[in-house]
């Protein structure tokens, strides 16, 4: 069994720690050895540096690439100690480069969203007070070379492996309904997951691209189980969904790097998101670097990276069948024309073509009402009954949306009695419970075009002491300006909803100084608000 890390923080002294081939270490960058039975921890050798390369390590940050695997790593040297990690941002897997603004030579910057990591502590400094980077074990071999090791816990899907059962035709069928919603038939049981099938998501920002099949309500009512993958309104907890009947079905909907990137290989069916664009960044930002040219180039680059990442993931996992889904939405309301035109999304067929170039994986771009018979497709992918498409003439894409009833609900909040009293501001943010953070936010209620709403509120919140000053404080502080459409912000406030409706729903316009993502602030208002809404009845009684 390999030696334990030299210290809890996984520092490694450059002399004295002997790992060596006596412990089973190879010289390359290949797979490590299983430590005993298949359900035990495994060790993987990610990188091996020769004694000369070790001797040439410079103080501070060192970048390395394993030429065999193409994977990148960072080593930080502080006198005679080393720390190491993968060169991969914890946010969305971006590559780190040297941070030219760091005069101390301790931090690196992500090329995707400008997140910054202090490699000397393995803590992220942008966003501040947020995450720690997963560290690798650093060990010296018997010849004073250096090994980067990753200790992996056992895969849960390997702990009790089951032989694939015989599937009768029609026994396992998957029918696509809309966006991320599938109807899964397992024998005589039915399961529907992520049923967004009518109306908008994220207040009024997202609308269905596809027309759900006419019998969607019947399918929903017949379901033995309805599974909701996480708390976003286009899905109605964040984890990959995994079924096993010997044959494995993997659903990684909206997971950036599920399970740390460790997923079962050679599953029968894999489904994942593909489109991108499910965020207000960067379309809703302005000021500083956020010019239209910068945003357009960023979006183009990010979509290409996402497409390549998904294709590489499919190639690595080698599912028998792959289905891109959970990206079929459109910003169809006329007031969101700018978002619709700039928030370019990936084409599922482009992804499938990319996958076919690099593997033999069968791909399926679903249409509403289409049904995949897993048994037939596994036995013979050319079987004409393997995928049953909807009847000819079936409406696939929506060409109209009934905005009226949904916007009426939002607009009703604008005239609510709560907002006749300016003290609602203190009541709401006290209820929200976020404070002791050096951030000042200016909240501005706006009309459809994000111009100040006549008679609307325009106020400051100082989250250091949860005060509401008339002017920005004189101390050094971070600052954000958030313009929000009045109907949506008041609806969110009244009902104590998460701010995803504002941010992911494209109902805000933001500026920030400095250009730092305040994870603690946004994380609180997007997932940590109290479960029960503010007690507005009690509030109004005290106001009266």
What does this entry show, briefly?
With 544 residues, this protein is α+β, with helices and mostly antiparallel strands.
Secondary structure topology:
Elements: E1 12-13, E2 42-49, H1 51-55, E3 60-65, E4 72-78, E5 81-86, E6 96-98, E7 107-110, E8 116-118, E9 123-126, E10 137-140, E11 146-152, H2 156-159, E12 172-178, E13 181-186, E14 189-193, E15 207-208, H3 216-222, E16 225-227, E17 241-245, E18 247-251, E19 269-272, H4 292-317, E20 321-324, E21 329-330, H5 337-342, H6 348-358, E22 362-363, E23 371-373, H7 374-379, E24 387-388, H8 403-414, H9 424-432, E25 439-446, E26 458-462, E27 478-485, H10 486-495, H11 500-503, E28 508-513, H12 519-527, H13 536-543
Parallel strand pairs: 14-16, 18-19, 19-20, 20-22, 25-27
Antiparallel strand pairs: 1-5, 2-11, 3-4, 4-5, 6-7, 7-8, 8-9, 10-11, 12-13, 12-23, 13-14, 15-21, 17-18, 23-24, 25-26, 27-28
Overall spatial form: globular
Number of helices: 13
Structural Rg: 26 Å
Overall structural class, as computed from helix and strand content, comes to alpha+beta
Number of strands: 28
Helix content: 10-25%
Main sheet properties: 6 strands, mixed
Write up what this structure looks like.
By secondary structure, the chain is an alpha+beta fold. Helix content is 22%, strand content 24%. The strands form 7 sheets. Strands 16-14-13-12-23-24 form a 6-stranded mixed β-sheet. Helix 4 (292-317) packs across helix 6 and helix 8 (403-414) crosses helix 10 (486-495). The longest helix has 26 residues, at 292-317. The chain is globular, with a radius of gyration of 26 Å.
């Amino acid at each position: 069994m390999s030696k334990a890390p030299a210290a809890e923080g996984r520092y490694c002294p450059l002399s004295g720690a002997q790992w060596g081939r006596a412990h089973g270490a190879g010289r390359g960058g290949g797979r490590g050895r299983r430590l005993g039975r298949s359900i035990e921890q495994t060790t993987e050798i990610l990188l091996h540096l020769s004694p000369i390369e070790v001797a040439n390590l410079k103080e501070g940050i060192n970048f390395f690439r394993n030429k065999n695997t193409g994977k990148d790593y960072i080593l930080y040297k502080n006198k005679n100690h080393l720390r190491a990690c993968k060169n991969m941002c914890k946010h969305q897997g971006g590559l780190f480069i040297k941070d030219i603004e760091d005069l101390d030579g301790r931090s690196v910057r992500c090329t995707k969203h400008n997140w910054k990591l202090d490699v000397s502590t393995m803590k992220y400094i942008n966003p501040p007070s947020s995450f720690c980077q997963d560290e690798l074990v650093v060990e010296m071999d018997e010849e004073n070379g250096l090994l980067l090791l990753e200790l992996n816990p056992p895969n849960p899907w390997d702990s009790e492996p089951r032989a694939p059962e015989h599937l009768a035709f029609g026994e396992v069928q998957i029918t696509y309904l809309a966006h991320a919603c599938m109807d899964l038939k397992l024998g005589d049981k039915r399961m529907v997951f992520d049923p967004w099938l009518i109306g908008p998501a994220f207040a009024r920002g997202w609308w269905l691209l596809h027309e759900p099949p006419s019998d969607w309500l019947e399918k929903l009512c017949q379901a033995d189980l309805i599974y909701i993958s996480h708390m976003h309104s286009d899905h109605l907890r964040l984890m990959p969904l995994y079924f096993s009947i010997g044959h494995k079905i993997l659903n990684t909907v909206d997971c950036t790097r599920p399970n740390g990137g460790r997923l079962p290989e050679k599953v029968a069916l894999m489904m994942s998101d593909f489109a991108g664009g499910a965020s207000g960044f960067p379309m809703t930002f302005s000021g500083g670097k956020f010019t239209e040219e910068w945003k357009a180039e960023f979006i183009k680059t990010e979509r290409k990276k996402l497409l390549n990442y998904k294709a590489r993931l499919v190639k690595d996992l080698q599912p028998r069948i792959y289905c891109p889904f959970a990206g079929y939405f459109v910003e169809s309301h006329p007031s969101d024309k700018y978002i619709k035109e700039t928030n370019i999304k990936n084409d599922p067929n482009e992804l499938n073509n990319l996958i076919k170039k690099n593997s033999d994986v069968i791909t399926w771009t679903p249409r509403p009402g289409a049904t995949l018979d897993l048994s037939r497709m596994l036995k013979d992918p050319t079987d004409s009954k393997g995928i049953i498409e909807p009847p000819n003439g079936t409406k696939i894409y929506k060409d109209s949306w009934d905005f009226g009833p949904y916007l009426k609900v939002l607009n009703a909040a604008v005239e609510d009695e709560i907002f006749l009293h300016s003290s609602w501001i203190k009541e709401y943010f006290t209820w929200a419970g976020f404070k002791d953070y050096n951030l000042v936010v200016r909240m501005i209620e706006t009309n459809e075009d994000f111009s100040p709403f006549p008679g609307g509120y325009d106020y400051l919140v100082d989250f250091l002491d949860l005060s509401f000053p008339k002017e920005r404080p004189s101390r050094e502080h971070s600052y954000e300006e958030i313009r929000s459409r009045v109907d949506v912000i008041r609806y969110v406030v009244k009902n104590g909803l998460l701010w995803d409706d504002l941010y992911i729903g494209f109902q805000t316009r933001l500026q920030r100084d400095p250009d730092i993502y305040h994870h603690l602030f946004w994380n609180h208002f997007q997932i940590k608000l109290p479960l029960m809404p503010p007690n507005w009845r009690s509030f109004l009684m005290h106001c009266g």
